[in-house]
C-alpha cells in the first residue's frame, strides 16, 4: 500500500493534536488547565495560554470553513495580533471550558475533512493564490505544533506542567 500525501497530513495532524509520539500534542499541552492557569501571563510579559488557544481556534475554524467550502462565520481579523485577544479571565472557567469544547469540535472536523481529501485536491489552488492546498495544510500543522510547544513552556514557567511521557 502506498502512503499518499493525504495520509502524511493525517499522520501529522494526529501527532500534533492527540497522538503522543515525538512531540507533545496540543490536546495534551492544554489538558487539565484551569481558567486561572490559562489566563496567566509570565511576569516578564508575553501571551497567556488562553491567547494562544484563541489564536489557534481562530485560524483552525477559518481553515475548516474553507475546507467545507463555506464562508467563515467569524469576520476577518484586523491583524494577526488581534486573533490572540485578551489574556482571559482567571475566574471564567465556563468561558475557558467553552473554548476547549469549541477547539475539540474544530479539531475533529478538520481531521474528518482532511481524511476525505483526495490527493489530487491537494494540488488545487488555495483561495485563488499560487499556493497549493497541500502546502497550506502542511504549514498549518507546523503552526499548531509550534504553539503547542509554547504552551508547554508557559506551563513549565507557571509550575502547572506535571505530565510525563
TrEMBL record:
Residues covered by the DinB-like domain: 26-151
Domain of life: Bacteria
Pfam families in the record: DinB_2
Annotated spans, Disordered: 69-91
SUPFAM superfamilies in UniProt: DinB/YfiT-like putative metalloenzymes
Name assigned to this protein: DinB family protein
Amino acid at each position: 500500500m502506498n502512503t499518499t500525501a493525504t495520509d502524511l497530513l493525517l499522520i501529522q495532524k494526529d501527532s500534533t493534536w492527540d497522538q503522543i509520539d515525538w512531540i507533545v500534542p496540543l490536546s495534551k499541552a492544554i489538558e487539565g488547565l484551569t481558567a486561572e492557569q490559562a489566563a496567566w501571563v509570565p511576569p516578564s510579559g508575553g501571551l497567556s495560554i488562553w491567547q494562544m488557544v484563541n489564536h489557534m481556534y481562530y485560524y483552525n475554524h477559518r481553515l475548516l470553513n474553507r475546507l467545507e467550502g463555506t464562508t467563515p462565520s467569524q469576520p476577518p481579523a484586523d491583524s494577526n495580533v488581534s486573533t490572540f485577544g485578551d489574556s482571559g479571565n482567571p475566574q471564567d472557567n465556563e468561558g475557558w471550558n467553552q473554548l476547549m469544547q469549541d477547539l475539540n469540535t474544530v479539531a475533529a472536523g478538520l481531521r474528518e475533512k482532511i481524511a476525505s481529501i483526495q490527493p489530487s485536491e491537494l494540488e488545487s489552488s488555495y483561495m485563488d493564490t499560487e499556493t497549493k492546498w497541500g502546502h497550506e495544510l502542511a504549514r498549518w500543522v507546523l503552526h499548531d505544533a509550534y504553539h503547542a510547544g509554547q504552551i508547554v513552556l508557559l506551563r513549565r514557567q507557571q509550575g502547572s506542567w506535571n505530565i510525563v511521557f
